[in-house]
Specification:
This protein is of the alpha/beta class and 377 residues long. Helix content is 24%, strand content 29%. It is globular. Keywords: ATP-binding, DNA damage, DNA repair, DNA-binding, Hydrolase, Metal-binding, Nucleotide-binding, Stress response, Zinc, Zinc-finger.
Length: 377
């Protein structure tokens, strides 16, 4: 017995809601809500399913996870010792930040890996592979149909499969174009099922939206085992790989990389890199930063100028603007600095994006130094 239910669905993100609105409550787009009919099966009996085998977890407590080393020490450390067999890993970041380069480097370091691209041809990927120090050959297919991808992986059974990117993959079972939330969610669920049943490690690459999340509002993060974000300024050479979520290792661990002509290169001594151009001038302060298990030194730069606008400008690169406003309010109130008449600019050298609260002291000190135009000795 079936019952028809009227629903309203967003054609952009796939969100469903019980009544019509001019604007989607999920993605905020206007004019994308359309009425549809959903058939709900009403059953008066208990559904019969397959009885599954029950596992005694106490017998598995001393069994170590099987991991595959990527031969990239910084990546292995961020992952907690390597890629866990049968895990689903999300690699996210802004367009052009180096996600595809890192993904291809991983494939080139592992035996029996396959690289699946929905954005580039075999010739384009092969050209990028020439710049990398490939230890093993890389199998490649250009495909965007999820069913074809699943069939290929079932047949070849690679140790690691990399899909670049999840926004280009579509399933015939789901309506909507590739890249919308419904397609992304359905594709990820199918890939997760394959990873667990076939014991294949799958890395999916996802682009970060303008809201700062991968493929929509937290669409994928709760589905996958590990979430890695590649951060930094694409116009500078340094990148920060951060483990936002990790079921098999420490959350918050970071690795530092340098983008070169030959791909991403691991930075073993971050302090030396970030301070190599440091000069002891006004407005600059050196501060220690803790990122994951690493401690390194960075340079905080401040510039204070008399404003020529009705409202002074506060601009920060690599530091939160809201925190900068609080620091300026404290300095104005407690130290009687007339900063409401000055433009204030903050920059974290190296293109890093710092969130540690301890950096607030360094920012305040750099502002004071810039205001009085005196360097700290």
């Amino acid at each position: 017995m079936s019952k028809s239910i009227s629903i309203f669905e967003c054609s952009k993100c796939g969100a469903q809601q019980p009544k019509w609105t001019g604007r989607c409550l999920e993605c905020g787009n206007w004019g994308t809500i359309a009425e549809g009919v959903k058939n709900a099966e009403v059953s008066r009996t208990v559904n019969s399913g397959t009885v599954r085998e029950i596992t005694d977890l106490s017998k598995l407590q001393n069994k170590d996870l099987q991991r595959a080393s990527t031969s990239l020490n910084e990546l292995d450390r961020v992952l907690g010792g390597g890629l866990v067999q049968g895990s689903l890993v999300l690699l996210g970041g802004d367009p052009g930040i180096g996600k595809s380069t890192l993904a291809l480097q991983i494939a080139a370091q592992l035996e029996n890996s396959i690289y699946i691209s929905g954005e580039e041809s075999a010739e384009q990927v092969a050209q990028r592979l020439q710049r990398l120090s490939a230890t093993h050959s890389v199998s490649f297919i250009a495909e965007t149909n999820l069913d074809n991808i699943l069939s290929t992986l079932h047949k070849t059974k690679p140790v690691v499969a990399i899909i670049d990117s999840i926004q280009t993959i579509y399933s015939n079972e789901v309506s909507g174009e590739a890249g919308n939330i419904s397609q992304v969610r359905a594709s990820t669920i199918k890939l997760l099922e394959l990873a667990k049943t076939a014991n294949i490690t799958i890395i999916i690459v996802g682009h970060v939206t303008k809201e700062g999340v991968v493929a929509g509002p937290k669409t994928l993060e709760h589905l996958v085992d590990t979430v890695l974000y590649l951060e930094g300024d694409k116009y500078q050479q340094y990148r920060l790989l951060r483990a936002v979520k990790n079921r098999f290792g420490q959350t918050g661990e970071v690795g530092i990389w340098e983008m070169t002509n030959n791909g991403l290169k691991e930075v073993l001594n971050p302090s030396e890199i970030f301070l190599k151009a440091h000069k002891n001038v006004s407005g600059t302060v050196i501060t220690p930063v803790i990122e994951g298990s690493q401690v390194f030194m960075v340079e905080v730069q401040a510039l204070v100028n008399k404003t020529s606008f009705g409202y002074p400008r506060r601009i920060a690169s690599g530091f939160a603007n809201q925190r900068l406003e609080i620091i300026l309010a404290v300095l104005t109130k407690k130290l009687k600095l007339p900063l409401n008449n000055y433009d204030v600019y903050i920059n974290i050298a190296g293109g890093l994006n710092l969130t540690e609260p301890a950096v607030d002291l360094a920012v305040a000190t750099a502002i004071i130094s810039a205001y009085y135009d005196q360097a700290f000795t």
